[in-house]
């Protein structure tokens, strides 16, 4: 009698394995920011309080670890939209998310040299994460428009372009404070015309 081949069952990772993974990602983000693409993976494992085997089980290569750090940052940003939409008024949710976006730009700038060294153009690798982020800003702006707090002709992507622009032309180390002030200016300028 022929045997049927069953598909392996995909199990959800254990809670402790997921905590280890998140800790590794947090430590790796800081290590890549400080030391670039050649940050010691053994040091990352030690600082995350896991063994090297645990690190390699989650991230078999340096490139995979770096991809995961970057993807995790963008996905946290995209997921924040849902939380903010549930717990805050529309304009406050939009403002808070834009502030988080500024922090994400700063984190990306810290790890960008390592990303470029190992991955080349990360945009090609992470198109799905960018799509989630763009959907998040569209949802937040739509909610604020529907509430009457933001004018109808606002293009959500323009808010992101303004903040990215500030980060790209920044010549001082305190560009984040400038970008966060710009968030309030953008929100004020997006109010409906009387």
Can you give a write-up of this model?
This protein is 74% helix and 0% strand. It is mostly helical. The protein folds into 2 domains: 14-60, Homeodomain-like (Arc Repressor Mutant, subunit A, Orthogonal Bundle), CATH 1.10.10.60; 69-189, Tetracycline Repressor, domain 2 (Orthogonal Bundle). The mean pLDDT is 83.
Strand content: under 5%
Mean pLDDT reading? 83
CATH topology call of the largest domain: Tetracycline Repressor, domain 2
What Rg do the Cα atoms give?
20 Å
Question: How far apart are the termini?
Answer: 79 Å
CATH superfamily of the largest domain: Tetracycline Repressor, domain 2
Shape: globular
- CATH architecture grouping of the largest domain: Orthogonal Bundle
Number of strands: 0
The tally of helices reads 9
Biggest β-sheet, characterized? none
Poorly predicted parts: none
* Overall tally of structural domains: 2
What percent of the residues sit in helical stretches (DSSP H or I)? over 70%
**SSE run:** HHHHHHHHH
CATH class of the largest domain, please? Mainly Alpha
Broad structural category: mainly alpha
């Amino acid at each position: 009698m022929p045997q049927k081949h069953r598909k392996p069952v995909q199990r959800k990772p254990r809670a402790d394995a997921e905590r280890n993974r998140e800790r590794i990602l947090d430590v790796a983000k800081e290590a890549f920011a400080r030391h670039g693409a050649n940050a010691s993976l053994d040091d990352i494992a030690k600082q995350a309080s896991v063994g090297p085997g645990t690190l390699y089980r989650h991230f078999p290569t340096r490139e995979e670890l770096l991809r995961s750090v970057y993807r995790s940052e963008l996905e946290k940003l995209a997921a924040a939209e849902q939380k903010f939409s549930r717990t805050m008024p529309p304009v406050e949710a939009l403002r808070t998310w834009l502030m988080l976006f500024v922090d994400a730009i700063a984190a990306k700038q810290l790890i960008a040299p390592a990303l470029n060294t190992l991955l080349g153009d990360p945009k090609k690798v992470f198109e799905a994460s960018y799509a989630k982020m763009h959907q998040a800003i569209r949802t937040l702006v739509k909610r604020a428009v529907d509430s009457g707090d933001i004018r109808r002709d606002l293009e959500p992507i323009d808010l992101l372009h303004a903040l990215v622009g500030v980060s790209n032309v920044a010549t001082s180390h305190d560009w984040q404070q400038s970008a966060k002030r710009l968030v309030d200016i953008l929100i004020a300028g997006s109010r409906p015309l009387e």
